[in-house]
Write a structure and sequence with these properties.
The complex is a heterodimer. Among the domains of chain A are: 56 residues, Ubiquitin-like (UB roll) (Roll); 79 residues, no CATH class. Chain A is built from five helices and eight strands. The two termini of chain A are 13 Å apart. The mean pLDDT of chain B is 96. Classes of the chains: A alpha+beta, B mainly alpha. Chains A and B meet through helix 3 of A and helix 2 and helix 7 of B.
Chain lengths: 208, 251
């Protein structure tokens, strides 16, 4: 018997009820790699980590992150994604200890590559963009950051990323979050679905 | 100003957006993955919202109010191209249609930002961001699935071949094409089509897909003046079901 639904789209699929009980088990899933997404709410605010996405490549990760983590209107100015494996994390500190105080390497002063830093200022919160350094490698970037970005408030964890490993919204594309203000056509407050659902349920139980 | 020519232009654009918006909304809850479900649903809302704005301009020009225009006409009174009314089919068809349509839409509204009719030029600027994202979304997916696996390439190509003559129907010339162009309302379908072909090839060239030879195709015309496939009327019946239950309801 064909599956009977109130949703005409389901009926159009013409799914046999029997087929629902005989779903074939899937083989091992091939997992996509993970990317971390960061959102900048407005120009004056730093990029903030919002969560991970699974995607086959950087551009797809950007799309998925846009759908999953950004809202339009006044809620997003720019978005960036970084492949998780390209983020190097310092160790964690706690009890008010600044992670920078535990780093004792001197910065080399070599300006070989460009790095970006994200600080965790409170356990349980998200990493926020802190600044940019030129350095020889990841560890050297941390050392260089200590001079530049250690502040009064303790930092509990630091993420270091090569600038070239970040895919960010182009300046000219920031309008993709702009949207028309009038939304009342989306409201369905006057649509009373309950009667329809009740009648449908009664008809179904009468059949059974 | 030639109001009839302007209305002709506005109706076809609004109807395209409304009908494709409705088709996109049919993916809600059925998307092949969560993000695509959200993406198609949100693009659906954008398109319906855009059509509402165009119907409002028509309303200011003396046509009926947007709800009446959207919900009370029959298929033969619609001016959308047939491309947008075709059933969603599988995801590959919906994706290629979205790509072909929104590539044209972005160029169209970029051109319209210079329209001599001020309210239209203003609206074109306001919705640029929405449409830009629709095209970005389509481009990234086409680049991905158009070069991913044998199956994805084959399925997309097959849908591409089916959709292409319909996509050429987007550019069916208006009966008042000359007036529309001469009045500076819009630069015209012929010019849009040429720009569209270039943009479509730009993306297709980055994939394993092949662009069907445009000169060998017969564009599917007729939609602009009420000739539609059998798929449109059932869509309209379903779309207007709630409105017709209580046309006086205050939304």
């Amino acid at each position: 018997m064909a599956l009977d639904s109130l949703d005409p789209r389901v009926n159009r699929l013409d799914i046999s009820e029997d087929s629902l009980s005989t779903l074939v088990a899937k083989g091992n899933l091939d997992q996509f790699e993970t990317y971390e997404a960061f959102v900048q709410v407005k120009d004056s605010k730093p990029f903030e980590h919002v969560g991970p996405v699974h995607a086959p490549n950087e551009e797809m990760a950007f799309l998925f992150a846009k759908e999953q983590y950004s809202r339009r209107g006044m809620f997003c100015n720019a978005l960036c994604v970084i492949k998780t494996e390209n983020i190097k994390a310092s160790h964690f500190t706690d009890n008010g200890q600044d992670v920078y105080d535990t780093l004792h390497t001197e910065a080399s002063g070599e300006e070989k590559e460009s790095f970006e830093l994200f600080h965790l200022m409170k356990r349980g919160k998200q990493h926020k963009y802190a600044g940019h350094v030129m350095a020889r490698d990841y560890d050297d970037a941390l050392a260089a950051a200590k001079t530049l970005y250690q502040g009064v408030k303790p930092v509990f964890n630091i993420w270091v990323v090569k600038s070239e490993d970040i895919l960010s919204t182009d300046e000219e594309d920031r309008d993709i979050w702009e949207t028309l203000k009038e939304k009342q056509y989306r409201e369905a407050i006057d649509y009373r679905a309950q009667d329809k659902i009740k009648a449908f349920k009664e008809a179904q139980s009468a059949q059974a | 100003m030639n109001t009839e020519a302007l209305k002709d232009l506005l109706y076809k654009m609004a109807d395209d957006q409304l009908i494709l918006g409705h088709r996109n909304s049919e993916w809600t809850g059925f998307g092949p993955l969560l993000e695509e479900d959200i993406a198609f649903s949100s693009m659906a809302q954008d398109k319906v919202g855009q059509s509402w704005q165009l119907y409002k301009i028509l309303n200011d020009l003396g046509e009926s109010d947007p709800d009446t225009v959207a919900f009370m006409r029959n298929a033969d009174q619609f001016h959308n191209c047939q491309l947008v009314e075709l059933p969603n089919g599988e995801y590959d068809f919906s994706l290629i249609r979205h790509f072909l349509f929104d590539t044209a839409e972005l160029i169209r509204f970029t051109m319209l930002a210079n329209s001599s009719y001020e309210p239209l030029a203003l609206l074109a600027k306001k919705i640029k961001g929405e449409i830009k994202y629709h095209k970005m979304h389509a481009d990234i997916w086409i680049k991905q699935l158009g070069s991913a696996t044998e199956e994805s390439i084959e399925r997309l190509q097959e849908s591409f071949n089916i959709a292409f003559p319909y996509a050429l129907g987007i550019f069916e010339p208006s009966q008042m094409e000359e007036e529309i162009i001469n009045e500076g309302l819009f630069e015209g379908e012929e010019k849009l089509k040429a720009a569209w072909l270039a943009k479509v090839s730009e993306i297709i060239d980055k994939t394993s897909l092949t662009l069907p030879e445009a000169s060998l195709q017969t564009p599917v015309y007729g939609g602009r003046y009420g000739t539609h496939t059998d798929n449109l009327q059932p869509l309209l019946d379903e779309m207007s079901e709630v409105f017709k239950m209580d046309p006086a309801a205050d939304w």
